[in-house]
Predict the 3D structure of the following.
Amino acid sequence: GYWGPASSTIDWCEANYIVTPYVAEFFNSTTSLFIVASGVLPLLFHQHMWDVLEVRYALSFLSIAVVGIGSVAFHGTLQFRHQMWDEVPMLWTVVLVLYSLVEHHAAAPKYGLPLQLGLVAYAAVATWATSQQGGTAQWFSFHTMFGAVELPCLYLVYRFFSSLGASEEGLKSLLRKGFVCYVLAVVVWLTDLNFCGALQRLPGYDFWNLHAFGWHLLTSCGLYTMLLGFWYHRLKCVLSVDVRLSSCRGVPVLRRGKAS
């Protein structure tokens, strides 16, 4: 193919260059646009609410979009430098999300600069460990450093969900869908990674592989719905903004004021 031999530390289950000589993993690359959309759409759908969009959420949405762009490049080329465009933004994104979850209930930062500096330092170390190594060490470093923040995030989401009362059934439903989507995405990711040989024996698997149409789609849905739910709760219950959950052609959105 156009990009030459793969230099990334992982070559996914989708066969390379089966659609065009210019894209290594065509379906993994194109479905990464779902991730871009899950970061861009919250900003586009809520332009009328930019005045109450805190920096933490703006950065979280934008960083998810950057992850998606990096994923397009990574899967499209299977080059190590483009792998870093995917994995390094993932590390910073999960740190941003953890910060938002930890500081969720306080109008003003509760832990302030120490927490911010600690998370930045962690992300910087994780970036070094991910980008300055190769082979198995790189793979292990990235997933260990990412997982060490991802798991606390999932725990905080679960704890927050468990604390919601019956009056927030709409929010609970939204978070439930997002959480299930994300957990299923992880299961699908592990399945594609560990059972590739068996999956490739299925008819046409390269054209509907689980990494592309499972992991990418489900994580996009999960991130969009969970972040939107937390933003809604923070605006309404912490910052006292008159806001409600709604939908636009089946897509969850936030609107100001009460339903007419």
